[in-house]
Amino acid sequence: MPFGIDIQEDEILSWEHGILENLLADRTTGENIIWATDDYSARGEGYLSLDAIEVASITGENNHIIQPRIRKPLEEQKKRIDEKAEVFTPAWICNSQNNLIDKVWFQTSAILLIMIWGWNANSSTME
């Protein structure tokens, strides 16, 4: 099922295996990740900077709260650049950075993705 530019949280919630819950899990604290921004604080309790993101906070009637950067108003994008140094990083740069880390950590690169005029998953098994 194609998602387009936005992730449909309700669709992910409908899948089995607790995928949405896993995406919200903070592996360091054992709790859910936090909002870490005041951008949603006007919604009240549960949406403050240090509040954990709960499944109910982003599904159902709250399904479209989290938006990709490109869908946010230009003014908000500029504000986030100024205040948080938030910028768009192209996927190929992220992949290159990850491959450099993999090369140091695993002594090999392209553990997960190989970019050859598009994205191909690496089908080999990691040892």
Explain this structure:
The chain is mainly α and 127 residues long. The protein contains 5 helices and 2 strands, in the order H-H-H-H-H-E-E. The protein has helices spanning 9-14, 19-24, 55-58, 74-84, 91-106; strands spanning 113-115, 119-121. A hairpin with a 3-residue loop joins strand 1 and strand 2. The longest helix is centred in the C-terminal third of the chain and has 16 residues, at 91-106. The radius of gyration is 18 Å and the shape is globular. The mean pLDDT is 80.
For the residues shown, what is the average pLDDT?
A: 80
Oligomeric assembly? single chain
- Describe the global form: globular
| Cα-based radius of gyration, to the nearest Å | 18 Å
Poorly predicted sequence stretches spanning 5 or more consecutive residues: none
Tags for this entry?
two-stranded antiparallel sheet, 2 strands, 5 helices, mainly alpha, globular, 127 residues, 34% helix
Structure described in brief:
By secondary structure, this protein is mostly helical. Helix content is about 35%, strand content about 5%. The chain has a two-stranded antiparallel ribbon with strand order 1-2.
List strands and helices in order, with pairings.
Layout lengths: L8 H6 L4 H6 L30 H4 L15 H11 L6 H16 L6 E3 L3 E3 L6
Antiparallel strand pairs: 1-2
